[in-house]
Amino acid sequence: MTTIENAQDYAEPYLLGVLATAGLDVEYTRGEADTLYYRKDGQEVAVLDFVGGYGSTLLGHSNPELIEHARELLAGQTPIHAQFSRHSYANRVVSQLNSIIRRELDDDENYFAIFANSGAEAIEAAMKHAEFERFARIAGLRAELEANVEAARAAVADGRASGDIEALVAAATAHNDGLFASTPLFLSPVGSFHGKLAGSVQLTYNPIYRSVFSALAAQARFVPMDQPGALDEIVAAERRDLHDLEIAGGRVRVTPRSFPVFCALVLEPILGEGGIHEVPVEFAKDVNRVAADLGIPVVVDEIQAGMGRTGAFLSSSHLGLRGDYYAMAKSLGGGIAKAAVLLVRESRYLRDFEMMHSSTFAKDSFSCLMAEKVLGVLEANDGEVYRTAAQRGSELLTALRGLRAEFPTVIADVRGRGLMAGLEFANLAEADSQVLRELDGSGFFGYYVSGFLLREHNIRTFPTSSAVYTLRFEPSVHLTTSDIDRLIVALRDVCLEIRDAEGARLAPIA
């Protein structure tokens, strides 16, 4: 029998070491509502969790209603592996989603679904479907160009037009073939995060995650949301034209035809890992306008902010942003099942995609039936969960803004919507304290603050991964006023440490 050695860490040991320097290397043993528990010196320690599985636990850890449903499904031997068969439960999930989305968008058009296991996989499916759309457009353009070449040849042959037709055809063909072989581009806001898989990482702004793997897949052009006209400027800079042939005035001439450079415009309504920045309404309008002009889909990533966290099922609905595709995951599984889905507007859906894309575990009975239950809980009592998220979120943001008013030199900003809030600390690169300057230079400032909150106050939060001065707060709808009060007490301690005590208690512990 093989002996298991536990002395050596093999599961991402470098990451564990980084966590240890901030005191975050805690092993949690159970969770309920907004509380996680770990054991210390034989005793159970309760930790107030504001990370919420990065948006996965809107209904709380180990939601009793969902746990009971999961037990019933597993005890009933639900057939998790029944691929290539009828999946009525998946259809019911999509029917529920369509009903909710039609209500929020006031739109009668339905969406078709491709299921996945995670948010990043849903984004990968979106990228592939968008490229399939572009491929179909290019095929149509090829056919038109070839027909025009033959028409020009015929016109020259029978004397209706003049020109060195073969030279023109050769030049146009060489030019066009270069464009046809080119890699497509995507558009996404500066600060975006859409995953770390080979395709989705190309849409993730942080170069630490992306640059090493840029050769693996199509690239994105990142658009600053705070610069009016930036989206139009980037599109104009990347414009490419095919060379078509036409007959005018008895001669064959080359005429430009716009080439579909871009696949899709992909964005989160609230940039999660980019620092909890909600997309400005004017930028959302530009997104829909530019995408319509280009004929490309708008892919709305609702993975972290959606499913009711902001007080509406679609966080994008607050902005008037309308998606052709929607990616959903995280809270879709209720914090228990690994469930994700890509929704594609019926008018854009290419049915052959179903034969090109699949996943062993996607669309399984357990995750779909759990998602169906989650949607039922969200919609119960005329959307009580949505109202609660809005109310609790408003109270949380009000408290955080009050703290900012108390420490204007320490806290740079508070932002967010509903139960997705961010608190940004002021930059400490020029701080008088050497400890604070070193924390700033480490690149892990937010993690050290998080470690302090965990050690000193039993509160769990993390910085957003691409904006480490911003702490995230994504609790469940079970958040209470006393929980908020406890958070403010802890954050006040942090602010006092930064402002008055030179940050010594924030320093690395190992």
Overall description:
With 510 residues, this protein is of the alpha/beta class. The chain contains 13 helices and 19 strands. The protein has helices at residues 13-21, 52-55, 64-75, 88-105, 119-157, 165-180, 207-210, 230-237, 281-294, 365-406, 434-442, 445-457, 481-500; strands at 28-32, 35-40, 43-49, 111-116, 185-189, 219-223, 241-248, 251-258, 262-267, 270-271, 277-278, 298-301, 325-328, 340-345, 411-417, 420-425, 459-460, 463-464, 467-473. α4 packs parallel to α10 (365-406) and α5 packs antiparallel against α6. The longest helix has 42 residues, at 365-406.
Using the CA coordinates, give the radius of gyration.
26 Å
> How would you characterize the largest beta sheet?
7 strands, mixed
In percent, how much strand structure appears in the residues? 15-25%
Helix amount: 40-55%
Structural class: alpha/beta
Number of helical runs?
13
Runs in which pLDDT lies below 50 for 5 or more consecutive residues are none
In which order are the strands of the major sheet placed?
Answer: 4-14-13-12-9-5-6
> Alpha-carbon distance between the termini?
37 Å
Query: Which of globular, elongated, flat, extended, rod-shaped describes the shape?
Result: globular
